[in-house]
Amino acid sequence: MPELASLLRRLFTTWRGDVLLAVLLVLWSAVYLAAAVPPGGQRWAALILVLSLAVTLAVRRRWPVGAAAAACAVILAALPLGLATQVQGGLGTPWLGVVFLLAYTLGAQAGPVAGLAGAAALAGCMWIVNGSFSPVAFMITIGPWLAGRAVLSRHRMTEQLQRRNEELRAEQELFAQESVRYERARIARELHDIVAHCLSVMVVQASAGQRMTDASGVAEVLGSVAAAAEQARAEIGRLVDLLAGDLPDGSPPALPMVGELVRRASVTGLDVSCRFQGPCGGLTPAASEAAYRVVQEALTNALKHAPGAAVDISVRGRGADVTVDVVNAAPRQRRSGLERSGGSLGLAGMRERVGACGGSLTSGPTPAGGWQVSATLPCAVALPPPSAEEGPCPAGRRTA
After folding, report:
1. Mind listing the pLDDT tens digit for each residue in 296-340?
2. Which of 332-336, 346-350, 372-376 has the lowest mean pLDDT?
3. Which CATH superfamily is domain 186-392 in?
4. How confident is the model at residue 165, as a pLDDT?
5. Using alpha carbons only, what angle is made at residue 73 by residues 72 and 78, rounded to the nearest 5 degrees?
6. Listed residue (349, 348, 291) closest to 321, CA to CA
7. How far is CA 40 from CA 1, 82, 286, 357, in A?
8. pTM value?
Protein backbone atom coordinates (compact mmCIF):
# COMPACT_ATOMS: atom_id res chain seq x y z
CA MET A 1 0.00 0.00 0.00
CA PRO A 2 2.72 2.59 0.72
CA GLU A 3 4.28 1.84 -2.65
CA LEU A 4 0.91 2.26 -4.41
CA ALA A 5 0.26 5.55 -2.60
CA SER A 6 3.72 6.81 -3.55
CA LEU A 7 3.13 5.81 -7.19
CA LEU A 8 -0.22 7.60 -7.31
CA ARG A 9 1.31 10.70 -5.68
CA ARG A 10 4.09 10.84 -8.29
CA LEU A 11 1.56 10.26 -11.08
CA PHE A 12 -0.95 12.94 -10.15
CA THR A 13 1.62 15.60 -9.26
CA THR A 14 3.16 15.64 -12.76
CA TRP A 15 1.98 16.36 -16.29
CA ARG A 16 1.44 12.63 -16.85
CA GLY A 17 -1.40 12.71 -14.37
CA ASP A 18 -2.93 15.67 -16.18
CA VAL A 19 -2.78 13.82 -19.48
CA LEU A 20 -4.42 10.79 -17.87
CA LEU A 21 -7.20 12.99 -16.45
CA ALA A 22 -7.69 14.59 -19.88
CA VAL A 23 -8.07 11.15 -21.49
CA LEU A 24 -10.59 10.12 -18.84
CA LEU A 25 -12.50 13.37 -19.45
CA VAL A 26 -12.73 12.64 -23.18
CA LEU A 27 -13.82 9.06 -22.60
CA TRP A 28 -16.48 10.09 -20.06
CA SER A 29 -17.82 12.79 -22.35
CA ALA A 30 -17.80 10.52 -25.41
CA VAL A 31 -19.83 7.89 -23.58
CA TYR A 32 -22.28 10.51 -22.33
CA LEU A 33 -22.68 12.16 -25.74
CA ALA A 34 -23.18 8.82 -27.41
CA ALA A 35 -25.95 7.97 -24.94
CA ALA A 36 -27.67 11.35 -24.39
CA VAL A 37 -27.15 13.41 -27.56
CA PRO A 38 -28.67 12.33 -30.88
CA PRO A 39 -26.25 11.82 -33.76
CA GLY A 40 -25.52 14.99 -35.68
CA GLY A 41 -23.61 18.20 -35.66
CA GLN A 42 -24.37 19.02 -32.03
CA ARG A 43 -22.73 15.83 -30.85
CA TRP A 44 -19.58 16.61 -32.83
CA ALA A 45 -19.56 20.20 -31.64
CA ALA A 46 -19.82 19.01 -28.03
CA LEU A 47 -17.02 16.51 -28.60
CA ILE A 48 -14.78 19.27 -30.03
CA LEU A 49 -15.46 21.41 -26.95
CA VAL A 50 -14.61 18.49 -24.71
CA LEU A 51 -11.35 17.87 -26.56
CA SER A 52 -10.46 21.57 -26.28
CA LEU A 53 -11.19 21.55 -22.56
CA ALA A 54 -9.11 18.40 -22.16
CA VAL A 55 -6.16 20.15 -23.81
CA THR A 56 -6.38 23.01 -21.28
CA LEU A 57 -6.29 20.42 -18.51
CA ALA A 58 -3.20 18.73 -19.95
CA VAL A 59 -1.20 21.97 -20.24
CA ARG A 60 -2.37 23.69 -17.02
CA ARG A 61 0.97 23.25 -15.19
CA ARG A 62 3.06 24.85 -17.93
CA TRP A 63 0.72 27.68 -18.95
CA PRO A 64 -1.79 28.18 -16.10
CA VAL A 65 -3.07 31.61 -17.19
CA GLY A 66 -3.30 30.63 -20.87
CA ALA A 67 -5.07 27.38 -19.98
CA ALA A 68 -7.62 29.28 -17.86
CA ALA A 69 -8.26 31.78 -20.67
CA ALA A 70 -8.76 28.96 -23.17
CA ALA A 71 -11.11 27.19 -20.75
CA CYS A 72 -13.18 30.38 -20.44
CA ALA A 73 -13.49 30.54 -24.22
CA VAL A 74 -14.55 26.88 -24.40
CA ILE A 75 -17.17 27.34 -21.66
CA LEU A 76 -18.63 30.44 -23.29
CA ALA A 77 -18.69 28.69 -26.69
CA ALA A 78 -21.31 26.29 -25.28
CA LEU A 79 -23.93 29.07 -25.46
CA PRO A 80 -23.90 29.85 -29.22
CA LEU A 81 -23.57 26.12 -29.98
CA GLY A 82 -26.65 25.35 -27.92
CA LEU A 83 -24.81 23.06 -25.52
CA ALA A 84 -25.70 24.87 -22.28
CA THR A 85 -28.15 22.13 -21.38
CA GLN A 86 -25.50 19.43 -21.72
CA VAL A 87 -23.03 21.50 -19.70
CA GLN A 88 -25.58 21.83 -16.92
CA GLY A 89 -26.36 18.14 -17.18
CA GLY A 90 -24.09 15.13 -17.71
CA LEU A 91 -21.11 17.19 -18.95
CA GLY A 92 -21.31 19.48 -15.93
CA THR A 93 -19.57 17.17 -13.46
CA PRO A 94 -16.29 16.66 -15.42
CA TRP A 95 -16.33 20.31 -16.51
CA LEU A 96 -16.58 21.44 -12.88
CA GLY A 97 -13.61 19.20 -12.07
CA VAL A 98 -11.57 20.85 -14.83
CA VAL A 99 -12.50 24.33 -13.56
CA PHE A 100 -11.55 23.26 -10.02
CA LEU A 101 -8.08 22.06 -11.11
CA LEU A 102 -7.48 25.14 -13.25
CA ALA A 103 -8.37 27.49 -10.36
CA TYR A 104 -6.05 25.55 -8.02
CA THR A 105 -3.20 25.78 -10.55
CA LEU A 106 -3.74 29.54 -10.88
CA GLY A 107 -3.26 29.88 -7.12
CA ALA A 108 -0.30 27.50 -6.89
CA GLN A 109 1.73 28.60 -9.93
CA ALA A 110 0.51 31.97 -11.27
CA GLY A 111 1.02 35.41 -9.78
CA PRO A 112 -1.50 36.70 -7.24
CA VAL A 113 -3.14 39.25 -9.53
CA ALA A 114 -3.21 37.14 -12.69
CA GLY A 115 -4.30 34.06 -10.75
CA LEU A 116 -7.17 35.81 -8.99
CA ALA A 117 -8.30 37.39 -12.24
CA GLY A 118 -8.26 33.99 -13.95
CA ALA A 119 -10.24 32.36 -11.13
CA ALA A 120 -12.82 35.17 -11.21
CA ALA A 121 -13.10 34.83 -15.00
CA LEU A 122 -13.77 31.09 -14.68
CA ALA A 123 -16.46 31.77 -12.07
CA GLY A 124 -18.06 34.42 -14.29
CA CYS A 125 -18.12 32.09 -17.29
CA MET A 126 -19.81 29.40 -15.21
CA TRP A 127 -22.44 31.90 -14.06
CA ILE A 128 -23.09 33.00 -17.63
CA VAL A 129 -23.58 29.44 -18.86
CA ASN A 130 -25.85 28.63 -15.93
CA GLY A 131 -27.90 31.75 -16.58
CA SER A 132 -27.92 32.88 -12.94
CA PHE A 133 -25.68 33.29 -9.90
CA SER A 134 -24.47 29.97 -8.54
CA PRO A 135 -22.49 29.61 -5.27
CA VAL A 136 -21.03 26.38 -6.63
CA ALA A 137 -19.12 28.33 -9.27
CA PHE A 138 -17.64 30.54 -6.55
CA MET A 139 -16.75 27.55 -4.37
CA ILE A 140 -14.93 25.67 -7.15
CA THR A 141 -12.90 28.70 -8.29
CA ILE A 142 -12.05 31.10 -5.44
CA GLY A 143 -11.75 28.32 -2.86
CA PRO A 144 -9.23 26.25 -4.86
CA TRP A 145 -7.36 29.44 -5.76
CA LEU A 146 -6.92 30.22 -2.03
CA ALA A 147 -5.83 26.64 -1.41
CA GLY A 148 -3.29 26.94 -4.24
CA ARG A 149 -1.91 30.16 -2.71
CA ALA A 150 -1.52 28.40 0.64
CA VAL A 151 0.26 25.45 -0.98
CA LEU A 152 2.53 27.85 -2.91
CA SER A 153 3.44 29.61 0.33
CA ARG A 154 4.29 26.29 1.96
CA HIS A 155 6.39 25.23 -1.02
CA ARG A 156 8.33 28.48 -0.91
CA MET A 157 8.86 28.12 2.82
CA THR A 158 10.04 24.55 2.29
CA GLU A 159 12.49 25.67 -0.38
CA GLN A 160 13.80 28.41 1.88
CA LEU A 161 14.26 25.93 4.71
CA GLN A 162 16.04 23.52 2.39
CA ARG A 163 18.38 26.27 1.18
CA ARG A 164 18.99 27.35 4.76
CA ASN A 165 19.70 23.76 5.77
CA GLU A 166 22.19 23.47 2.93
CA GLU A 167 23.84 26.72 4.01
CA LEU A 168 23.98 25.54 7.62
CA ARG A 169 25.42 22.20 6.51
CA ALA A 170 28.08 23.98 4.47
CA GLU A 171 28.83 26.34 7.36
CA GLN A 172 29.04 23.38 9.73
CA GLU A 173 31.54 21.65 7.45
CA LEU A 174 33.60 24.83 7.17
CA PHE A 175 33.45 25.28 10.94
CA ALA A 176 34.59 21.70 11.47
CA GLN A 177 37.45 22.16 9.02
CA GLU A 178 38.40 25.45 10.66
CA SER A 179 38.21 23.85 14.11
CA VAL A 180 40.52 21.07 12.99
CA ARG A 181 42.92 23.57 11.46
CA TYR A 182 42.84 25.73 14.57
CA GLU A 183 43.39 22.72 16.85
CA ARG A 184 46.33 21.58 14.76
CA ALA A 185 47.85 25.04 14.95
CA ARG A 186 47.26 25.13 18.71
CA ILE A 187 48.93 21.74 19.19
CA ALA A 188 51.84 22.87 17.03
CA ARG A 189 52.27 25.97 19.19
CA GLU A 190 52.05 23.86 22.34
CA LEU A 191 54.78 21.57 21.06
CA HIS A 192 56.84 24.56 20.03
CA ASP A 193 56.51 26.20 23.45
CA ILE A 194 57.36 22.98 25.28
CA VAL A 195 60.21 21.63 23.18
CA ALA A 196 61.90 24.63 21.58
CA HIS A 197 63.44 26.03 24.76
CA CYS A 198 64.79 22.70 25.99
CA LEU A 199 66.17 21.75 22.59
CA SER A 200 67.82 25.15 22.17
CA VAL A 201 69.55 24.72 25.54
CA MET A 202 70.63 21.22 24.57
CA VAL A 203 72.09 22.42 21.25
CA VAL A 204 74.00 25.26 22.90
CA GLN A 205 75.30 23.01 25.66
CA ALA A 206 76.32 20.27 23.23
CA SER A 207 78.22 22.80 21.14
CA ALA A 208 79.94 24.08 24.26
CA GLY A 209 80.80 20.53 25.29
CA GLN A 210 82.53 19.90 21.99
CA ARG A 211 84.84 22.83 22.64
CA MET A 212 85.72 21.89 26.21
CA THR A 213 88.84 19.93 27.07
CA ASP A 214 88.54 19.39 30.83
CA ALA A 215 86.44 16.44 31.93
CA SER A 216 84.69 18.34 34.73
CA GLY A 217 83.38 21.01 32.37
CA VAL A 218 82.16 18.38 29.91
CA ALA A 219 80.32 16.55 32.66
CA GLU A 220 78.55 19.75 33.76
CA VAL A 221 77.50 20.55 30.20
CA LEU A 222 76.24 17.02 29.57
CA GLY A 223 74.35 17.17 32.85
CA SER A 224 72.57 20.31 31.67
CA VAL A 225 71.73 18.59 28.39
CA ALA A 226 70.27 15.61 30.27
CA ALA A 227 68.23 17.91 32.55
CA ALA A 228 66.81 19.79 29.57
CA ALA A 229 65.97 16.55 27.80
CA GLU A 230 64.25 15.19 30.93
CA GLN A 231 62.16 18.34 31.24
CA ALA A 232 61.15 18.14 27.60
CA ARG A 233 60.17 14.48 28.07
CA ALA A 234 58.05 15.29 31.13
CA GLU A 235 56.25 18.20 29.49
CA ILE A 236 55.55 16.26 26.30
CA GLY A 237 54.02 13.54 28.47
CA ARG A 238 51.88 16.20 30.12
CA LEU A 239 50.76 17.46 26.72
CA VAL A 240 49.80 13.93 25.66
CA ASP A 241 47.68 13.62 28.81
CA LEU A 242 45.96 16.92 28.04
CA LEU A 243 45.18 15.89 24.46
CA ALA A 244 43.80 12.57 25.71
CA GLY A 245 41.43 14.41 28.03
CA ASP A 246 43.14 13.29 31.23
CA LEU A 247 44.28 15.64 33.96
CA PRO A 248 48.07 15.42 34.21
CA ASP A 249 49.77 14.71 37.48
CA GLY A 250 51.21 17.69 39.25
CA SER A 251 50.61 21.36 38.67
CA PRO A 252 51.43 23.32 35.53
CA PRO A 253 54.60 25.40 35.35
CA ALA A 254 54.14 28.34 37.70
CA LEU A 255 55.68 31.77 37.87
CA PRO A 256 58.12 30.86 40.70
CA MET A 257 59.69 28.28 38.36
CA VAL A 258 61.11 31.15 36.31
CA GLY A 259 64.19 30.80 38.46
CA GLU A 260 64.86 27.35 37.00
CA LEU A 261 64.63 28.78 33.50
CA VAL A 262 67.10 31.48 34.45
CA ARG A 263 69.46 28.95 35.99
CA ARG A 264 69.41 26.70 32.93
CA ALA A 265 69.93 29.67 30.59
CA SER A 266 72.84 30.89 32.70
CA VAL A 267 74.59 27.52 32.37
CA THR A 268 74.61 28.01 28.59
CA GLY A 269 76.67 31.17 29.04
CA LEU A 270 73.77 33.57 28.61
CA ASP A 271 74.13 36.79 30.61
CA VAL A 272 70.70 36.75 32.22
CA SER A 273 69.31 38.55 35.26
CA CYS A 274 65.92 38.24 36.92
CA ARG A 275 64.17 40.38 39.51
CA PHE A 276 60.72 40.49 41.12
CA GLN A 277 59.03 43.67 42.31
CA GLY A 278 55.83 43.86 44.32
CA PRO A 279 53.39 40.99 45.07
CA CYS A 280 53.08 38.57 42.18
CA GLY A 281 51.13 35.72 43.75
CA GLY A 282 47.61 36.65 42.68
CA LEU A 283 47.69 34.99 39.28
CA THR A 284 45.47 32.06 38.42
CA PRO A 285 47.19 28.78 37.49
CA ALA A 286 46.51 29.46 33.78
CA ALA A 287 47.87 33.01 34.00
CA SER A 288 50.90 31.80 35.98
CA GLU A 289 51.62 29.21 33.31
CA ALA A 290 51.20 31.85 30.59
CA ALA A 291 53.76 34.08 32.34
CA TYR A 292 56.13 31.12 32.62
CA ARG A 293 55.75 30.35 28.91
CA VAL A 294 56.37 34.00 28.00
CA VAL A 295 59.69 33.96 29.86
CA GLN A 296 60.55 30.56 28.39
CA GLU A 297 59.86 31.62 24.80
CA ALA A 298 61.65 34.96 25.21
CA LEU A 299 64.75 33.18 26.53
CA THR A 300 64.54 30.69 23.66
CA ASN A 301 64.40 33.53 21.13
CA ALA A 302 67.36 35.21 22.81
CA LEU A 303 69.39 31.98 22.59
CA LYS A 304 68.50 31.55 18.92
CA HIS A 305 68.57 35.10 17.57
CA ALA A 306 70.87 37.04 19.95
CA PRO A 307 73.75 34.79 21.05
CA GLY A 308 75.92 36.37 23.70
CA ALA A 309 73.44 39.18 24.39
CA ALA A 310 72.46 40.10 27.95
CA VAL A 311 68.87 39.34 28.93
CA ASP A 312 66.97 41.14 31.67
CA ILE A 313 63.78 39.61 33.15
CA SER A 314 61.50 41.74 35.28
CA VAL A 315 58.28 40.62 36.98
CA ARG A 316 56.28 43.39 38.66
CA GLY A 317 53.00 43.30 40.56
CA ARG A 318 50.95 46.43 39.97
CA GLY A 319 47.64 46.41 41.81
CA ALA A 320 45.34 44.15 39.79
CA ASP A 321 47.97 43.19 37.18
CA VAL A 322 51.29 41.42 36.94
CA THR A 323 53.66 42.58 34.21
CA VAL A 324 56.42 40.40 32.78
CA ASP A 325 59.16 42.12 30.75
CA VAL A 326 61.97 40.27 28.99
CA VAL A 327 64.53 42.46 27.23
CA ASN A 328 67.63 41.23 25.43
CA ALA A 329 70.42 43.33 24.01
CA ALA A 330 71.80 43.14 20.47
CA PRO A 331 73.67 39.90 19.61
CA ARG A 332 77.37 39.88 20.43
CA GLN A 333 78.48 36.55 18.98
CA ARG A 334 78.40 34.86 15.63
CA ARG A 335 75.12 33.25 14.59
CA SER A 336 74.83 29.61 15.69
CA GLY A 337 72.31 28.47 13.09
CA LEU A 338 69.52 28.10 15.65
CA GLU A 339 67.75 31.16 14.22
CA ARG A 340 66.68 29.08 11.22
CA SER A 341 64.89 26.52 13.39
CA GLY A 342 61.25 26.67 14.42
CA GLY A 343 58.15 27.70 12.53
CA SER A 344 57.68 31.32 13.65
CA LEU A 345 55.01 30.18 16.11
CA GLY A 346 56.54 31.51 19.31
CA LEU A 347 55.06 35.01 19.36
CA ALA A 348 51.67 33.76 18.15
CA GLY A 349 51.62 31.14 20.90
CA MET A 350 52.57 33.68 23.57
CA ARG A 351 49.93 36.13 22.39
CA GLU A 352 47.26 33.45 22.36
CA ARG A 353 48.12 32.20 25.83
CA VAL A 354 48.15 35.67 27.34
CA GLY A 355 44.95 36.67 25.52
CA ALA A 356 43.15 33.55 26.78
CA CYS A 357 43.85 34.72 30.33
CA GLY A 358 42.48 38.20 29.65
CA GLY A 359 45.88 39.84 29.33
CA SER A 360 47.82 41.52 26.56
CA LEU A 361 51.25 41.06 25.00
CA THR A 362 53.48 43.39 23.01
CA SER A 363 56.81 42.70 21.37
CA GLY A 364 59.25 44.54 19.19
CA PRO A 365 62.78 45.84 18.74
CA THR A 366 64.41 48.16 21.24
CA PRO A 367 66.26 51.39 20.32
CA ALA A 368 69.53 49.66 21.21
CA GLY A 369 69.03 46.94 18.59
CA GLY A 370 67.70 44.27 20.93
CA TRP A 371 64.24 42.84 21.46
CA GLN A 372 61.61 43.30 24.14
CA VAL A 373 58.59 41.18 25.08
CA SER A 374 56.06 42.56 27.58
CA ALA A 375 53.04 40.72 28.93
CA THR A 376 50.39 42.07 31.29
CA LEU A 377 48.23 39.49 33.08
CA PRO A 378 45.23 40.20 35.37
CA CYS A 379 45.23 38.86 38.90
CA ALA A 380 42.46 36.70 40.28
CA VAL A 381 42.55 38.42 43.69
CA ALA A 382 43.28 41.97 44.74
CA LEU A 383 46.93 42.58 45.58
CA PRO A 384 48.36 44.99 48.13
CA PRO A 385 49.96 48.19 46.80
CA PRO A 386 53.24 47.56 44.98
CA SER A 387 56.45 47.99 46.91
CA ALA A 388 59.41 49.92 45.64
CA GLU A 389 61.75 47.20 46.87
CA GLU A 390 63.01 44.70 44.37
CA GLY A 391 63.67 41.06 45.13
CA PRO A 392 65.73 38.42 43.39
CA CYS A 393 64.34 35.65 41.25
CA PRO A 394 62.71 32.86 43.34
CA ALA A 395 65.68 30.68 42.55
CA GLY A 396 68.09 33.47 43.34
CA ARG A 397 69.48 36.21 41.13
CA ARG A 398 71.22 34.66 38.20
CA THR A 399 73.85 36.61 36.33
CA ALA A 400 76.45 34.86 34.28
Report:
1. 888 888 878 887 788 999 998 877 889 999 999 888 776 655 555
2. 332-336
3. Histidine kinase-like ATPase, C-terminal domain (3.30.565.10)
4. 92
5. 100
6. 291
7. 46, 13, 101, 98
8. 0.45
